[in-house]
Write a structure and sequence with these properties.
Number of domains: 2
CATH architecture of the largest domain: 3-Layer(aba) Sandwich
Shape: elongated
CATH superfamily of the largest domain: P-loop containing nucleotide triphosphate hydrolases
Largest sheet: 6 strands, mixed
Bound molecules: adenosine-5'-diphosphate, magnesium ion
Radius of gyration: 23 Å
Structural class: alpha/beta
Number of helices: 11
Order of helices and strands: EEEHEEHEHHHEHEHEEHEHEEHEH
Length: 303
């Protein structure tokens, strides 16, 4: 069940939210859709799910043009919109029953509700009103409504935004589990989320796709800085002295006595930083080289 996006442009009045966007999500892939606020992520997802039309261009899900409003394609897609809009006055089972009838689940409705409540870990809460749930459980209800008709494609718009660290891990595990048999596209602005879940990374900035790579290739392809080193001294030297260290391209004061060094050099800059410290009677409390920094790639491509 693939998603193919061809030359999609979206105008809101005079504003171009998407500018000739093309990409493909292959069957079974979990794709991370990254971009700063306002980049066009939610707009793209609303177009893929058929909620709003593209101004020009074409989206096909499993070969079907989503712009035709074919109910067949709606049944293949599960969608968790940004901010997870839910009816707070409804009870969980009542709400899921309502969603199940939209998908015309008919006789299998009861079983679909029971199954999805169990899969999304809502059993303990199943008789509660949505408005009485914690944010983590509300997000599970959002996932439950997206999954109840067992869609092949899942579109998740910032599914973990606003959750606490434990809830984030729980929701990520649910997504990973669903990803074993579904094609998933998830938007996020959390790099670690992509690191943790995704096979492929697509980065969008100001309506334009600036990267589309398998996760394992993105570092080598886009890494501009070869080395990032975090250093903690016992006191702060002057920034201008630090920039004089050989092979160092830039230095940033992070906080307290913590500094970040960037270098394009192939040679390890750590011994040079250490030698500088000795020379200047500084003690190095910590010295750490950063590996595989997706955040750096993101900053480079979207700044
Ligand atoms: P993201 O989800 O990446 O934060 P959006 O897709 O929500 O980005 O928004 C992309 C751009 O389109 C933003 O500049 C936003 O202000 C604008 N936009 C989104 N929805 C509308 C709308 N309904 N009317 C006008 N402008 C909109
Ligand atoms: Mg958004």
């Amino acid at each position: 069940m693939s998603i193919i996006i061809q030359n999609v442009t979206k105008l809101y009045g005079a504003q171009k939210a998407l500018n000739n966007v093309s990409f493909e999500v292959k069957t079974g892939e979990i794709v991370g859709f990254l971009g700063p606020n306002g980049a066009g992520k939610s707009t793209m997802m609303k177009i893929i799910t058929g909620f709003i039309p593209a101004t020009t261009g074409l989206v096909r899900v499993n070969g079907i043009n989503v712009g035709t409003n074919d109910p067949e394609v709606k049944r293949k897609i599960g969608y968790l919109p940004e901010n997870n809009p839910l009816y707070s006055e409804m009870y969980i089972r009542e709400y899921l029953g309502f969603v199940a009838s939209i998908y015309k689940l008919g006789k299998s409705k009861r079983k679909a509700i029971d199954d999805i409540i169990s899969v999304t870990g809502l059993t303990s809460e199943q008789n509660k009103k949505i408005g009485d749930l914690s944010k983590g459980f509300r997000q599970r209800v959002g996932l439950a409504q997206a999954l109840i008709h067992n869609p092949d494609v899942l579109i998740l718009d910032e599914a973990t935004t606003g959750l606490d660290p434990n809830q984030i891990i729980e929701i990520r595990n649910l997504i990973k589990e669903a990803g074993k048999e579904k094609t998933i596209m998830l938007s996020t602005h959390i790099m670690q989320e992509v690191e943790a879940i995704c096979d492929r990374v697509i980065i969008i900035d100001k309506g334009i796709i600036v990267a589309n790579e398998e996760k394992k290739n993105i570092y080598s392809k886009f890494k501009r800085t070869l080395q990032i080193v975090h250093v903690e001294f016992d006191r702060n030297p002057s920034e201008s002295d630090l920039t004089k260290i050989a092979n160092v391209n830039s230095v940033r004061h992070l906080k307290d006595n913590l500094w970040l060094f960037e270098s394009d050099s192939e040679d390890d800059i750590r011994p040079l930083i250490f030698a500088f410290a000795v020379q200047n009677k500084l003690t190095v409390l910590a010295l750490q080289k950063e590996e595989n920094n997706l955040e750096e790639v993101f900053r480079h491509l979207t700044s």
